[in-house]
Design brief:
This protein is of the alpha/beta class and about 425 residues long. About 20% of the residues lie in helices and about 25% in strands. The chain contains seven helices and 22 strands. α1 (about 15-25) packs parallel to α4 (about 320-335) and α4 runs parallel beside α6.
Length: about 425
C-alpha cells in the first residue's frame, strides 16, 4: 500500500476576516494541515471595537481602528462571503460594526475553524529556509500570556494581518506650533469630546467624510481639507470643504489655494494607513515603498517565493468576497491544480501602473476582472453577478447623497441578476 501523502503545512497569520477565510478553505481540504496565529484573544481583527487607544494589556499597539458609531459604507448583502450569505438587511442596508463582528464570529463557528487558531500568540519572525529543492518557512511566535517562544516550520505562509492599523501621517510644515489636539483617525472613538470645537480634517476618503459628518453634530465647525474634486453631495451646514493644507502657524491653517482657516482647535488626520509586515525577515523578499508592495503577482503572490501570499492587499474593493477568491486561488496553486506563469510575466504584472506608488493597489472598477481572473486560473466559481451590479449601483447612490445613503434600501432580485437601490426620502 502506498504511503499516505504528507500534508502541506500552512501557517496563517491573523484572525481577522482574511485570516478566517484562509482557515475556512484550508480546513475544508484534507491535504492541508492548518496552524493560525492571532495576537489578541478573539477573531475579528479590525472589526473588534475597543475604547482603548495606544497600547493593549500586553504592551502591544491597539490593532483596531474601529470607532463607536461606525456603520459600513457598503450594504451588508454584498459584504457576505459567497459561501455564507446570512446578512440580508435591506433597509437600512448598511449595518454597524457589531453586526459585522457577529457575522465573522458566526462564520468561524459555522465552519468550525477556531480550533485551528492559537490566540494571544504574536508572530515575531518569519524567515525563509531555502534549499536547492524547496522553500520552508521558519516561524517564531511568542505566547503573550507566558512569554514563551517557539519556532515551527511550514511549507506555505498566508499573511492576513490587515492594513488598517499603522497610521499614515503626512508631514505638515509648522505642525509643531499648533497648540490644539492632533490625532489620527486610528485613535478616534467617539464624538462627545468635540463639542463646540473647530475641527480641521485632512483627508476626504471614507473615514474623513464619515467622521466629519458625525462630528458636525457636535463641533461648532468642521473643515474637510483635501486635494481632490469637490464632493457634489450636500453636506451639513457647518461642514465646509477646503483645499489641502500647505502649512500651519499656531491655530491658523494656510491652504494650498492661498486661503487661511483660523482658530482651529483640533487637527484630525484621516489620511489612511501604511501596509506593515514587521515580522517578515528581509530574506522573504517583500519590500514596501510608499505603500507599494513588491514583488507581488496579482497583488497576492510573493513572486520570489510563491509559497507565500499576502491576502487583502487591494483597496477600494468588496473585501470579503475578494478574500474568498484570493484564498481559493492560492490553495489551487499549493495543490498544483493551477500553475503560475513564467517569472517574467509575473514581474511584468507587478510593475507599477499608477502615477503614484501609494495608489498601486487601488483596484476600484478593475476588481471584477481581477476576481474573475483568479477564479478562471484557479478553476473555481466566479463571484455571483449581484456583487458587481450591487457595488456599481451603490457607488452612484453614495456619491450623490453622503448624508443619507447608508439608510438606502438595497434589494437583490431572487435570481441574483438585478439590484434595486432606493434612496431614503
Amino acid at each position: 500500500m502506498a504511503d499516505r501523502e504528507e500534508k502541506i503545512k500552512v501557517c496563517v497569520i491573523g484572525g481577522g476576516a482574511a485570516g478566517l477565510c484562509a482557515v475556512r478553505h484550508l480546513a475544508a481540504n484534507s491535504k492541508f494541515e492548518t496552524t493560525a496565529y492571532e495576537q489578541t484573544n478573539e477573531v475579528g481583527g479590525t472589526w473588534v471595537y475597543t475604547e482603548q487607544v495606544g497600547l493593549d494589556e500586553n504592551g502591544l499597539p491597539i490593532h483596531s481602528s474601529m470607532y463607536r458609531n461606525l456603520r459600513t459604507n457598503l450594504p451588508a448583502k454584498i459584504m457576505n462571503f459567497p459561501d455564507y450569505i446570512v446578512m440580508e438587511q435591506q433597509e437600512p442596508s448598511c449595518v454597524n460594526h457589531e453586526e459585522i463582528l457577529n457575522y465573522l464570529k458566526n462564520y468561524a463557528q459555522h465552519f468550525d475553524i477556531c480550533r485551528h487558531f492559537h490566540f494571544n500568540t504574536k508572530v515575531e519572525h518569519v524567515r525563509l529556509e531555502s534549499s536547492e529543492f524547496y522553500d520552508k518557512w521558519s516561524v517564531q511566535v511568542r505566547k503573550l500570556k507566558t512569554n514563551e517562544t517557539e519556532v515551527r516550520r511550514f511549507d506555505a505562509i498566508m499573511v492576513c494581518n490587515g492594513h488598517f492599523f499603522v497610521p499614515n501621517t503626512p508631514t505638515v510644515t509648522g505642525i509643531e506650533s499648533f497648540p490644539g489636539l492632533i490625532m489620527h483617525s486610528h485613535k478616534y472613538r467617539k464624538p462627545d469630546g468635540f463639542s463646540g470645537k473647530t475641527v480641521f480634517i485632512l483627508g476626504a476618503a471614507s473615514s474623513g467624510i464619515d467622521i466629519g459628518i458625525e462630528l458636525s453634530e457636535y463641533a461648532s465647525h468642521v473643515y474637510l481639507s483635501h486635494n481632490y474634486e469637490k464632493l457634489k453631495s450636500p453636506l451639513p451646514s457647518n461642514m465646509t470643504q477646503v483645499a489641502g493644507v500647505e502649512s500651519v502657524h499656531e491655530n491658523a491653517f494656510h491652504l494650498k489655494d492661498g486661503t487661511i482657516v483660523d482658530a482651529v482647535d483640533v487637527f484630525l488626520f484621516c489620511t489612511g494607513y501604511k501596509y506593515s509586515f514587521p515580522f517578515l525577515d528581509e530574506n522573504c523578499g517583500v519590500r514596501i515603498d510608499d505603500n507599494y508592495i513588491t514583488p507581488l503577482y496579482k497583488h497576492l503572490i510573493n513572486i520570489e517565493h510563491p509559497s507565500m501570499c499576502i491576502v487583502g492587499v487591494p483597496t477600494i474593493v468588496l473585501p470579503f468576497p475578494m478574500f474568498h477568491m484570493q484564498v481559493q486561488y492560492f490553495l489551487a496553486l499549493l495543490e498544483n491544480r493551477a500553475t503560475l506563469p513564467a517569472k517574467s510575466v509575473m514581474l511584468e504584472d507587478s510593475v507599477l501602473k499608477t502615477a503614484r506608488k501609494k495608489h498601486a493597489h487601488k483596484l476600484m472598477d478593475k476588481q471584477w476582472d481581477y476576481n474573475d481572473s483568479l477564479a478562471d486560473a484557479g478553476g473555481f466559481k466566479r463571484l455571483p453577478v449581484f456583487y458587481k451590479i450591487g457595488y456599481t449601483a451603490w457607488n452612484v447612490n453614495r456619491i450623490s447623497n453622503l448624508l443619507r445613503y447608508k439608510d438606502s434600501k438595497f434589494v437583490v432580485s431572487e435570481d441574483g441578476q438585478s439590484v434595486e437601490v432606493v434612496l431614503p426620502n
